[in-house]
């Protein structure tokens, strides 16, 4: 007779699975709460202590940590010496282990959970049994996921439990225990950059393709959800998000969380193409659209207020890929949902989370850094020119500085206090970005009041000269170049007010 050991925290499908095993001639071993559930369902079950000859002890911390269990799991069935040892010790082999672990993740997600409560949900015996069974998958079936119960029963009934199937189950076990341990390590860790970095991610969805149609891809989310993230947005309408959609949505959400007043952010290819602020969301949309009415075509839009029908009707006139907002009025949704492929998503934007650390992959490694959450205000600026910026210019300089932080370097933003007018992104020289931003902005309403913001210092005075020649009268940049004096002198010569923020905001 074959033996199955069942010890699960999640009782989903447990009784039906045990009944299926019994029908196929398995003897059932079990522990604690699992044993009680099976017995209540009139399933014959042998307590584990009848095998170990030791009772559960230490408030259940020790139940299955015993040679009678682990020898039964780890013995090589094709090794005569191993089998002779089992016989000598009167240990019956265990052929299937079904374990899922204490709910550590669910516990630490509870508000105000204590460390003592979290530690009690660190499973020891469960991972040990799973690892033993998975190591010996050639002889023992290891199950950690209730979704595998029926496939296992079907395979057993058909006599189709081959090595590939066993390996697949073992792989899932080690992935699961690795993720479980990574969560525990992260919870207990107090170092910002530890010597080793175990990370836990869960597959959210398969993607049709990656950046291009010939590249395979999938979307993974953090095991502990980030509430303010594209991974937690709820899609109400439209086709599936693509790889590039997800990256663009992330970029747009990072910008949107900078603002508490009504704001609309439009993103194309990871860069903002239009940002508008106002007292109401419809006017904010008008400003974001007017910021770049050409590039917004096919854009990703984030609004930090509910979408009303008036705003929806304006957006409906354009081809847009995605709209994210806290909510849509029923009438607004009805208008936008007329386009079957337009993705409409909701996300709680009222209190955006500030992620402390962010990561990016490189060949052979991972870069990890503090997220750039610094937000300069006029009080942080140092006026370095003879000409002083006006109060209105200071407000615009603050706004431009915020946007420049989210533009791919070299980044230049031309803006008023409530609207971007031109953005130069990702150029190999700074004056090239200046030229692009100004050429995009110079014919737009509001340009007479525009300022220029730079994510990094000017290596020479050509950017200041070009800006002044095209009507810019106020500039914010971090300073720090060995030629700062040249840029300051050029600004003084041309009557431009310039302030130093003292902090660079590269985004590569």
List keywords for this structure.
six-stranded mixed β-sheet, 21 strands, 508 residues, 20% strand
Question: TL;DR?
Answer:
The protein has 508 residues and is of the alpha/beta class. The protein has 18 helices and 21 strands.
Write the layout of secondary structure elements.
Blueprint: E1 2-8, H1 14-23, E2 26-30, H2 32-40, E3 46-47, H3 49-52, H4 67-74, H5 80-88, E4 96-100, H6 104-108, H7 115-120, H8 125-135, E5 141-143, H9 149-158, H10 163-188, E6 201-207, E7 217-222, E8 234-237, H11 243-256, E9 263-268, E10 271-277, H12 281-291, E11 299-303, H13 309-316, E12 320-325, H14 330-336, E13 343-346, E14 357-362, E15 365-370, E16 382-383, H15 391-404, E17 412-415, E18 420-424, H16 430-441, E19 451-454, H17 462-469, E20 474-477, H18 484-494, E21 497-500
Parallel strand pairs: 1-2, 1-4, 2-3, 4-5, 11-12, 12-13, 19-20, 20-21
Antiparallel strand pairs: 6-7, 8-13, 9-10, 9-11, 14-15, 16-21, 17-18, 17-19
Helix pairs in contact: 4-8, 8-10, 13-14, 16-17, 17-18
The side-by-side strand order for the widest beta sheet comes to: 8-13-12-11-9-10
Uncertain runs are none
Which bin fits the share of residues in helices?
25-40%
Put simply, the count of helices is 18
Give the oligomeric state of the chains in this entry, treating copies of one chain as homo and distinct chains as hetero. single chain
Major β-sheet annotation: 6 strands, mixed
Which structural class fits the helix and strand makeup? alpha/beta
Number of strands: 21
Distance between the termini: 62 Å
- How much of the polypeptide forms β-strand, as a percent range? 15-25%
Mean pLDDT, as a whole number?
93
Overall geometry comes to elongated
Radius of gyration: 30 Å
């Amino acid at each position: 007779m074959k033996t199955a050991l069942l010890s699960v925290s999640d009782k989903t499908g447990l009784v039906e699975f045990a009944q299926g095993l019994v029908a196929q001639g398995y003897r059932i071993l079990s522990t604690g709460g699992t044993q009680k559930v099976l017995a209540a369902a009139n399933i014959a079950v042998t307590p584990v202590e009848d095998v170990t000859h030791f009772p559960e002890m230490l408030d259940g911390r020790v139940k299955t940590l015993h040679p009678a269990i682990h020898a039964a799991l780890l013995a090589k069935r094709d090794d005569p010496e191993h089998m002779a040892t089992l016989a000598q010790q009167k240990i019956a082999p265990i052929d299937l282990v079904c374990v899922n672990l204490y709910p550590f993740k669910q516990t630490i997600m509870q508000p105000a959970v204590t460390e003592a409560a979290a530690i009690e949900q660190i499973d020891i015996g469960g991972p040990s049994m799973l690892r033993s069974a998975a190591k010996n998958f050639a002889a023992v079936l290891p199950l950690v996921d209730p979704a595998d119960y029926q496939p296992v029963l079907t395979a057993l009934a058909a006599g189709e439990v081959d090595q590939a199937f066993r390996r697949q189950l073992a792989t899932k076990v080690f992935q699961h225990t690795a993720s479980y341990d990574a969560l525990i390590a992260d919870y207990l860790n107090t170092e910002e950059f530890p010597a080793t970095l175990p990370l836990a991610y869960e597959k959210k969805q398969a993607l049709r393709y990656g950046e291009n149609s010939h590249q395979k891809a999938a979307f993974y989310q953090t095991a502990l959800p980030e509430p303010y993230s594209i991974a937690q947005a709820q899609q109400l309408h439209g086709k599936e998000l693509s790889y590039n959609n997800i990256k663009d949505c992330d970029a747009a959400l990072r910008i949107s969380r900078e603002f508490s007043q009504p704001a609309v952010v439009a993103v194309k290819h990871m860069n903002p193409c239009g940002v508008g602020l106002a007292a109401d969301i419809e006017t904010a949309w008008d400003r974001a659209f007017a910021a770049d009415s050409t590039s917004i075509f096919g854009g990703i839009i984030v609004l930090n207020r509910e979408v009303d029908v008036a705003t929806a009707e304006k957006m409906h006139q354009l081809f847009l890929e995605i709209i994210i907002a806290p909510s849509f009025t029923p009438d607004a949704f009805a208008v936008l949902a007329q386009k079957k492929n337009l993705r409409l998503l909701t996300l709680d934007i009222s209190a955006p989370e500030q992620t402390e650390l962010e990561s990016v992959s490189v060949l052979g490694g991972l870069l990890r850094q503090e997220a750039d959450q610094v937000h300069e205000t006029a009080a942080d600026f140092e006026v370095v020119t003879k000409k002083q910026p006006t109060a209105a210019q200071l407000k615009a300089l603050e706004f431009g500085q915020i946007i420049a932080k989210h533009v791919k370097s070299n980044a230049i933003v031309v803006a008023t206090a409530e609207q971007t007018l031109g953005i130069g992104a990702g150029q190999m020289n700074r004056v090239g970005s200046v030229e692009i931003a100004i050429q995009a902005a110079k014919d737009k309403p509001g340009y007479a009041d525009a300022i220029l913001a730079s994510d990094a210092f000017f290596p020479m005075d050509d950017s200041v000269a070009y800006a002044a020649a095209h009507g810019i009268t106020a500039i914010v940049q971090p300073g720090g170049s060995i030629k700062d004096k040249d840029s300051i002198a050029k600004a003084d010569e041309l009557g431009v007010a310039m302030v130093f923020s003292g902090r660079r905001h590269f985004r590569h």
